[in-house]
Specification:
Helix 4 packs parallel to helix 6, helix 8 packs antiparallel against helix 10 and helix 12 crosses helix 14. The radius of gyration is 25 Å and the shape is flat. The longest helix is centred in the middle third of the chain and has 28 residues. Strands 1-4-3-2-5-6 form a 6-stranded mixed β-sheet. A two-stranded antiparallel ribbon has the order 7-8. Helix content is 45%, strand content 11%. By secondary structure, it is α/β, with parallel strands linked by helices. The chain is built from 15 helices and 8 strands.
């Protein structure tokens, strides 16, 4: 594979993207810094197909990134391959308002091939290629210039290894017939709504006890205010106000701006400055959270009770057994909250009761809660058996 020197000029990048547009797939990775900013600072993009690989410096003066971004978000003929690509996709979304499509995530695919729920990149490379990845550059400050050749080589290695792994992984998925299992997961990863930082939804990330509409309404208003402040100042939201303080302000709102001097977690200067004034304006404009925006209750599993909890535990045991037997990550088959809903009698809108999940697990889960399936121990190994007793 031909590895290019670090690309810093528009003509070289445009020529690279013209060639990559003819590839069946490209592997993509990014290096970024986000410790001290709201928006991740993109420092490097690495891309490869089976013939060539390159690292692109988005910080290079005058570099036109349009051909690369067009390849990633507008070219539907080229599959974009990531490993644990959530943050990479978020960065591309922030730059373009779109997500790469179609896309493939090797960490998600590894779940279908029995490699755990969140296999790391180094372990993936070791398991598929037998190569030990040099981790020495993991803690590089990628925003500093110039980058030395070791750093660039390290970064490019991420996509060259992935371009070797992906065809092998695809072949394994075809042989096992599990490729279709991943379609829904890949489309979910490509859903732009997962990456939009909507200030009106920011409150949902803040944990707060209680369900009083007036408190949640203030929390929504305060979280929106904080998000807009963080975006405008390009600071992490926690540097504006921490979640704990935001919850305290929502639950015990100050009556006047001078009271902010006594709020734990805020600077006393907020009692008289502009940012304190904007905070108070957010509180004063807050309205009770409408009924249709109220979060679901933690006890939304109707009538689960002690017996239902035991049934849910049995379902979780069944999930472990089935995941072990077919060598797949259990989270790909079903989530814990689904099992609890099933135990409580819910049958609608459960992914495990549709499609391939129903064939691989959902049917047995349903049979268990309805009395058609039980457990036995044979030769020290837990097995599932059909029962002939009455159904529940």
């Amino acid at each position: 594979m031909h590895v290019h020197p670090l690309i810093t000029d528009s003509a070289t990048l445009a020529n690279l993207c013209t060639r990559l547009a003819d590839a069946d797939f490209v592997t993509v990775d990014t290096e970024f810094m986000r410790e001290s900013t709201y928006w991740p600072e993109l420092c490097l993009i690495q891309i490869a197909d089976t013939n060539e690989a390159a690292a692109i410096d988005p910080m290079a003066l005058g570099l036109d990134m349009t051909p690369l971004l067009d390849l990633l978000v507008n070219n539907e003929d080229v599959l974009k391959v990531f490993h644990a690509g959530g943050q990479d996709i978020e960065i591309i979304y922030n730059l373009t308002g779109k997500t790469p499509h179609p896309l493939f995530d090797t960490q998600v695919a590894a779940m279908a091939l029995g490699q755990g729920e969140q296999i790391g990149y180094s372990n993936l490379v070791d398991s598929w290629l037998g190569i030990q990845v040099d981790k020495g550059a993991r803690f590089t400050d990628w925003s500093r210039r110039p980058l030395d050749q070791r750093q660039v080589d390290y970064a490019i290695g991420d996509v060259t290894h992935l371009s070797s792994i992906f065809p092998k992984m695809l072949e394994r998925l075809k042989k096992t017939g599990r490729g279709a299992w991943l379609d829904q997961e890949m489309e979910r990863l490509a859903d732009p709504s997962h990456y939009a930082n909507d200030p009106d939804l920011a409150w949902k990330r803040v944990r707060i006890s209680g369900r009083k509409p007036d408190v949640l309404g203030r929390l929504k208003a305060l979280a929106r205010w904080r998000e807009l402040e963080a975006q405008a100042k390009d600071l992490p939201r926690g540097r504006i106000v921490k979640d704990e303080t935001l919850g305290d302000l929502a639950g015990h709102p100050p009556r006047k701006q001078a009271d902010l001097a006594r709020v734990r977690g805020l600077s006393a200067t907020w009692a008289g400055n502009d940012i304190g004034g904007r905070l108070m304006a957010a509180i004063e404009a807050a309205e009770p959270l409408p009924a249709d925006e109220m979060p679901p209750r933690d006890d939304r599993k109707p009538g689960l009770g002690k017996e239902g909890s035991l049934v849910a535990d049995l379902l979780k045991l069944l999930l472990k057994i089935r995941a072990r037997d077919i060598d797949v990550a259990s989270r790909l088959l079903a989530r814990s909250e689904e099992l609890e809903l099933l135990a409580a009698g819910v049958r609608e809108d459960l992914p495990m009761l549709t499609g391939w999940r129903f064939d691989q697990f959902g049917r047995d889960a349903l049979d268990l809660v309805e009395g058609r399936l039980g457990f036995v121990v044979k030769n020290g190994k837990l097995k599932m058996v059909r029962t002939e007793g009455e159904t529940a």
